[in-house]
């Protein structure tokens, strides 16, 4: 997210340093205001020090919208932000000196839908008020339908679709070293790779982001899935505290990442079961966990082939940029079941030689061309049918381990239950060691009762203050002394 006012940090410091709040009943403060946007939506986020009390959204005659945060301190009292973009014309925040509330005004163009909501704090973020802005749903759907029609046309003409994903963006800059900021660098690199595909009529390359904004990792995959992409390639540069480490790496999904994803898909499916529509065409919704694993093993083998072809080209692109080979990792962006997916790390910004190569324009074009050539090579040669046997083995081993853990847990629980009942038993036994009461039945003899409880006749007599000649009667309550 783009910080729209670093000045706010200064004002926050000022507020924090005041030990007595202006308004006695609250410590509520706006601690930051952040803003981000993608081509389809934008958000203004107000970070707060406490869960806020927020009024409904009202509208002024000039079309401005507003809401009040009750008992909330805002410094420096009145701030106006001029945000010239397609979603938001203006934003201003004003402290009401009389009732201690803070009023937030915002104005959106007529075509934009605005929603405000409150989000509770979590381990990483504070309480927030979000102003969510987007193009009207109808317009968005229209755009997506046009996109799908375009995809159908491309598929009919056997034109392959490649989705290039420049990593990071917006408030997530990625690594930053030796004059290279990852989010900007990989965007430029992705555009360079796309240019090679644009010149080749066999391909259509699409970027997940075309400017400096952040996209959630799942959404990057979803864009490629929605477009029916034939390959998904995420582009990054690496960093390491050990400055000597250098070279290119190409990643595809790891068995561990895939197992976790299989678990997540099954859990997600169960959560979504209530909403599943009859006749749904989503194959994952109809698949069992084992079938999902098969699909994963299948697509992972294709990802391996793509990774190997790309790595081969990249390894031979520049004499002084070595390859560290094909590797596997559980990157969320690589979890797709629909298309082969890889992640390219174009060298280490933390390494002097790598960073010089990465900054050199001729080297960059060679690296971009090599990626294009590797992807093209994969898409033009027949994909070998295969499955990732390593994954299926791992999947089976993990399932066996899970089953064993489950069985052990059950065994433990049963054992605990047993121990508990044993403890209860010993309690009864213990109580047998204590003084008890016995109601005499017809036909009982004192010696019989004494034998039954393992005590002497005399002991019973003493406990009940009986004389030598006293006899027991039916329904008499006897105290049985402890053994
Ligand atoms: Zn990265």
Describe the protein.
Helix 7 crosses helix 10. 40% of the residues lie in helices and 23% in strands. With 483 residues, it is an alpha+beta fold. Mean pLDDT is 85; it is low at 1-24 and 273-280. It has helices at residues 7-17, 137-156, 182-198, 217-226, 255-272, 283-286, 289-315, 352-359, 361-380, 389-432, 446-453, 457-463; strands spanning 2-3, 30-37, 41-48, 58-59, 65-69, 78-82, 90-95, 102-107, 113-119, 127-134, 160-166, 176-177, 180-181, 203-207, 231-238, 248-253, 323-329, 341-348, 436-439, 477-480. It contains twelve helices and 20 strands. Bound molecules: zinc ion. Residues 167-168, 174, 182, 236 line the site of zinc ion.
Whole-number mean pLDDT: 85
User: Main sheet, how many strands, which sense, barrel?
Assistant: 6 strands, mixed
Radius of gyration: 36 Å
Q: Hetero groups bound? A: zinc ion
Helix content: 40-55%
Domain count: the total is: 3
Which strand order does the major sheet show?
A: 14-11-15-18-16-17
């Amino acid at each position: 997210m783009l910080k729209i006012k670093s000045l706010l940090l200064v004002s926050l410091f000022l507020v924090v340093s005041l030990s007595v709040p202006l308004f006695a009943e609250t410590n509520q403060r706006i601690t930051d205001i952040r803003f981000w946007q993608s081509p389809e939506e934008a958000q203004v986020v107000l970070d707060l020090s406490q869960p806020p009390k927020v009024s409904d959204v009202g509208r002024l005659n000039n079309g401005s919208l507003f809401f009040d945060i009750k008992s909330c301190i805002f410094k420096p009292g009145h701030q106006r932000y001029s945000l010239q973009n397609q979603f938001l014309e203006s934003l201003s925040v004003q402290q009401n000196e009389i009732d201690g509330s803070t009023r937030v005004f915002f104005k959106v163009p007529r075509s934009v839908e605005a929603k405000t909501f409150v989000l509770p704090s979590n381990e990483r973020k504070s309480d927030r008020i979000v102003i969510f802005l987007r193009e009207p749903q109808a317009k968005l759907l229209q755009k997506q339908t046009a996109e799908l029609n375009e995809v159908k046309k491309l598929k009919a003409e056997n034109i392959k679709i490649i989705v290039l994903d420049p990593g990071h963006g917006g408030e997530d800059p990625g690594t930053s070293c030796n004059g290279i900021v990852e989010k900007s660098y990989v965007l430029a690199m992705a555009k360079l790779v796309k240019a090679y595909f644009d010149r080749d009529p066999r391909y259509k390359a699409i970027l997940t982001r075309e400017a400096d904004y952040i996209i959630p990792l799942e959404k990057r995959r979803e864009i490629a899935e929605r477009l029916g992409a034939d390959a998904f390639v995420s582009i990054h540069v690496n960093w390491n505290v050990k400055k000597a480490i250098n070279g290119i790496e190409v990643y595809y999904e790891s068995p561990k990442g895939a197992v976790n994803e299989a678990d997540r898909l099954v859990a997600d499916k169960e959560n979504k079961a209530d909403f599943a529509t009859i006749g749904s065409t989503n194959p994952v919704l109809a698949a069992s966990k084992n079938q999902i694993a098969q699909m994963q093993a299948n697509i992972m083998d294709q990802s391996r082939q793509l990774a190997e072809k790309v790595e081969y080209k990249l390894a031979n692109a520049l004499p002084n940029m070595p390859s560290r080979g094909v590797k596997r990792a559980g990157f969320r962006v690589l979890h797709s079941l629909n298309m082969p997916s890889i992640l390219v790390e174009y060298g280490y910004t933390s390494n002097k030689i790598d960073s010089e190569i990465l900054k050199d324009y001729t080297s960059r074009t060679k690296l971009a061309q090599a990626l294009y050539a590797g992807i093209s090579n994969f898409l033009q040669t027949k994909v070998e049918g295969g499955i990732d046997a390593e994954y299926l083995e791992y999947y089976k081993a993990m399932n066996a381990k899970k089953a064993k853990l489950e069985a052990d847990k059950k065994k433990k629980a049963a054992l605990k239950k047993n121990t508990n009942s044993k403890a209860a038993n010993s309690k009864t036994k213990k109580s047998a060691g204590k003084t008890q009461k016995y109601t005499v039945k017809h036909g009982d003899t004192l010696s019989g009762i004494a034998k039954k409880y393992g005590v002497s006749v005399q002991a019973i007599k003493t406990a009940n203050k009986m004389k030598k000649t006293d006899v027991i009667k039916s329904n008499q309550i006897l105290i049985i002394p402890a053994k």
